[in-house]
Amino acid sequence: MKAGFIGAGRWALALALKLYEKGLTVALYEPDGQALARLLATRHHPDLPESVPVPEAITVSSDPAIVLDRSDITVFATPSAVLASAAERVKPLLSSFCQVIVSVTKGIDPETKKRFSVVLKEHLPGPPVVVLAGPGIPYEVADGDPTSLVAVSEDESAARLVRDTFTVRNLRVYSHTDVVGVEIAAAFKNVIAIAAGIADGIGLGINAKSALLTRGLAEITRLGLALNANPLTFAGLAGMGDLIVTAFSERSRNHRLGMAIGRGIPPETALKQLGGVAEGYWTAPAGLELARKLRIDLPITEEVYKILYQGEKPENSIERLLKRPTKKEFY
After folding, report:
1. Per-residue pLDDT tens for 77-89?
2. Which residue ranges does the record assign to the Glycerol-3-phosphate dehydrogenase NAD-dependent C-terminal domain (predicted)?
3. 103 known ligand binder
4. Which terminus, N or C, of the chain has the lesser number of Cβ atoms within 10 Å?
5. pTM above the 0.90 mark?
6. 189 classed as catalytic
7. What is the CATH number of domain 2-177?
8. What is the C-alpha separation between 63 and 66, in angstroms, rounded?
9. How high is the mean pLDDT of the chain?
């Protein structure tokens, strides 16, 4: 089998290395000339372990036709802001061999406010779409640490294909059918992780952080339920599991962004210092607009948005959250 990746960032490379380890032919498309030149020269990504080079047998190219030629699996691993345009660009190049399209991009489309599996289906009708999500820090996956993910699709056979293909030595994948729940959880945990990073940056204790994560998960679940997701999904790998990783790992860009902001660095400056994409920054406004259309209350997400885009001080956001009317604990 051959897997063609649209995007050659740290997550794409970590997964590509696992598939190569399993014996698949792997190719990655990198449109950024500078990133491509660095990767070809060093055969290494700066956010992956030094001890894990990219083998010469893995093709990395600026030509998507080469990458997608005779690919059985097409994996989209682009930043959320460009996924739709990337799908449209490669549409005429999609191999007739392609059995399944996989999305590992987390977020909400900034233009349409649609989930990315929906975006991919609209741009690339034909092969079933599977979302691969869960608590996976690329560095640790590439380094061999045990990791579990979930492959979710309305097409159960496609989900099982991705589950079985991506399961390898240290990576165990489960299958699932609640696409809405998994995508909402995967997108919004990044926003809550920014809030957790802000709390850490300010110096709040574990009491505050645990409450923030619990109520953040309640927000995510509330939005998912409004979209007919299965509530149990949010207690699983894509929900609680991914939220824990993203809100605590020092390698989580969303958590690092929040930490910098909590320490007084302006959001725009903190973003530039990351050296990569923090998807929660883009999910906050798109997700908040979606929630308002559904008349769903997301108080933590709204405060994160105000901090990121309106210059609000975190201390004021904390005060507003604490002064909200008392109520029963309920999603």
Report:
1. 999 989 999 999 9
2. 178-318
3. no
4. C
5. yes
6. yes
7. 3.40.50.720
8. 6
9. 96
Domain 187-322 indexed as CATH 1.10.1040.10 = yes
Chain segment 9-50, per-residue pLDDT in tens: 999 999 999 999 999 999 999 999 999 999 999 999 999 999
Active-site position among 91, 189, 306, 327: 189
- Nearest to 132, CA basis, from 93, 90, 95, 160: 160
DSSP letter string over 200-259? HHHT--HHHHHHHHHHHHHHHHHHHHHTT--GGGGGSIIIIIHHHHHHH-TT-HHHHHHH
Helices 179-202 and 206-226, interaxial angle, to 10°? 160
Domain assignments of the chain as residue spans, ordered by start: 2-177, 187-322
Q: Which of 174, 173, 129, 132 is nearest to 155 (CA)?
A: 129
Does residue 250 have a known ligand-binding role? no
Q: Which residues pair with 73 in a beta bridge?
A: 3, 100
Confirm or deny that 106 is annotated as ligand binding. Answer: yes
Written as six digits, the tokens of 148 are 């579990």
